[in-house]
Amino acid sequence: MIELRRVGPEGFSRALHKVIDIYAAAMRPPADQLTGRAAIMRTHASYPGFTCLFAESAETGMVGFGYGFHGMPGQWWHDVVRRALAEHAGQEAAETWFDDAFEIAEIHIHPDHQNRGIGRRLMHVLCEGRPERTAVLSTHDQPTAARHLYHSLGFADLISGYAFPGGYEHYAIVGTTLPLPAATPNGH
């Protein structure tokens, strides 16, 4: 049985080594990027409205996590993506999606525990009761299980084929209005 446990910035920072282990198993980045990713995550925990969930098993401990925060000018992802959306779809679209947004920064499930509905539960509980009008995130611009999950939760593509400054991988920027549609009894 997987339980979801909400933690604040302090609990998140104390467990950052476990968070990075899950991130590394799920994303398989080059090892030399993990220190920088940990620093970015630590900074995220200081942002207004930060909330984090750990997905935990009594047998194996943490098997996944997800977190987000209130997006604001001055935050790197917020500024870069908002500017790209303004260029792509106009200033009004950028304002609609980013003036009052819950930015979901990370959702990762260890590969041994994927495809069991944990990510869907994390998304629903993370977004539940959020005061923001919209939720936005970036995901690989490929037909992945994660992208399918986001679309099934009502997220629509705002930009596709997007490469972050200095990057080469293509991402989709997706968004939805809050609250998310209620989960059905079978989890969909």
Give a quick set of tags describing it.
globular, 188 residues, Aminopeptidase, single chain, seven-stranded mixed β-sheet, alpha+beta
Task: Spell out the blueprint of helices and strands.
Blueprint: E1 2-7, H1 9-14, H2 16-27, H3 34-44, E2 51-57, E3 61-70, H4 76-89, H5 91-98, E4 101-109, H6 118-127, E5 134-140, H7 145-152, E6 156-162, E7 171-177
Parallel strand pairs: 4-5
Antiparallel strand pairs: 1-2, 2-3, 3-4, 5-7, 6-7
Helix pairs in contact: 2-3, 4-5
What would you say this structure looks like, in words?
With 188 residues, the protein is of the alpha+beta class. The chain has one domain (2-177): Aminopeptidase (3-Layer(aba) Sandwich). It is 37% helix and 28% strand. The protein has helices spanning 9-14, 16-27, 34-44, 76-89, 91-98, 118-127, 145-152; strands at 2-7, 51-57, 61-70, 101-109, 134-140, 156-162, 171-177. The chain has a seven-stranded mixed beta sheet with strand order 1-2-3-4-5-7-6, sandwiched between helices. Helix 6 links the parallel strand 4 and strand 5. Helix 2 packs across helix 3. The radius of gyration is 16 Å and the shape is globular. It starts with a strand and ends in an 11-residue tail after the last strand.
